Structure formats: structure tokens, C-alpha cells
Protein: Transport permease protein
Organism: Paenibacillus zeisoli
Amino acid sequence: METAKNHFLSDMSVMLGRSMRHIFRSMDTIFTVCITPIAMMLLFVYVFGGAIHTGTDNYVNYLLPGILLMAIASGVAYVAYRLFLDKQRGIIERFHSMPIARSTVLWGHLLTSVVSNVISVIVIILVALVMGFRSSAGVLSWLAVAGILVLFTLALTWIAAIAGLSAKTVEGASAFSYPLIFLPFISSAFVPTESMPAIVRAFAENQPVTSIVETIRALLSDQPVGNDIWIALAWCIGIMLVAYILAMREYTKASDK
């Protein structure tokens, strides 16, 4: 058992190293992921911020959680793209012909997504600090925020894996992320849901982004999180489990071809 475990970890570290080299050889992917969310943050704070009433004096503080989720949704598209290329070029089959744990190929892409999105999130938070973002949160609250963002990244990355393994074209592999990127617009990420029409408000208050945004916002402002944190965790874990099952099913199909 110990040998099998060590074998799996060794194989996974090799696959992670392979995927990370792709990232570091083309750092423009991380900057591309950051550009749109940062542009949105600049636009909403300096152009629309004066006309938006959120009940807070610092709109950057209100806006940042939704911007971070947008960046993650944009970043996971590269996982779908790279998995699609690996499948189309027969790289997955080549790895499976070697004496390695099969699932490590997929886990290498997954962990690379987490690392690259962590880098993107840090860059965006640094820009937000320059724009006036301030937080009274303690270490434990920041760790909770980090944990929720990692769970959200994992959930969306497994969805990206489904898209990458099942897509027929490279465009189809990455197009899945567009609805995810714009989902924060129909949530409490930019404006309070109370200002929305009844039907839109009902959707906004019962979709995952709102509970995740509200939880992160409360943690960063050192306010009680209430039930939002449990709803956010339920959404992230539920989506991750379902997407994991479907992704592994597609991965098995791709492996058997």
C-alpha cells in the first residue's frame, strides 16, 4: 500500500511539473486571465462606482470578491484547452502506455489550475490594494477565504475537465467558461440583489456565486458570515463531486479509445 501511494505521488509530481512548465513558458496566460477582471474592476470603481449604491463607502471592498470569482472562471478555461490538446494529440494514450498511475495525468492538470489561479488571485488583490482595498480580517478569516477560493477553483476545474475531454473542437473546449465568467453579473457581486427585478433577484439569490461572494465579503470585512458560508460550501462541494464523477467518466472513455 505504501509503495503504491509513493508511486502515485511520484507520478503526480511528474505530471504536475509537466503542466507547470507549460504555464511558466507562457506566463501570458496568467496575465491574460488577470487583464479582464482588473479592467472590470477599474471600470466599475472609477466609472460606475459613483452611481452604484451598495451601502458601503469603499466600493472596491464590495466588488473584489466577485472579481476574484470571475478571474478563476476565466483561468480554468486553459485546463479545458490543454486537456483537449493532450487528447487530440494522443498524449494521454502515450502516458497510459507507460507504467504510471493513469489518474495522475488528470490530477496534474487539476493542481496546475489551482496554482495558476492562486497566482492570478494574488495579482488581482495587489491591484485592488493600490486602488484602495482594505481589510480588517484576521489570519483565520483570510485562510477561510483562501479555502473557499480553492474549493471554487476545484469545482470549476472539474467542469473544465469535462469540457476538455468531451469537446470536438478547441473552440468548444474553452467556450464553456463564458457563462461562468458572466454569472457574477447576475448575483450580488456588483450590486445588492434588492435593486433587481423580482425574477432576476430570485435567480441571483439562489445561484452559487451570490452565497460565495457574500461569504468572502463578510470574512474580508470581519463580519458574521451567517448561513452563507454553509450554502457556499454546499454549492462548491456539490458541484465538485458531481463534476468529478462526470469528468472521470469522460476520462475513462478517452483512455479506452
Residues 2-256 form one domain. Confidence is low (pLDDT under 50) at residues 1-5.
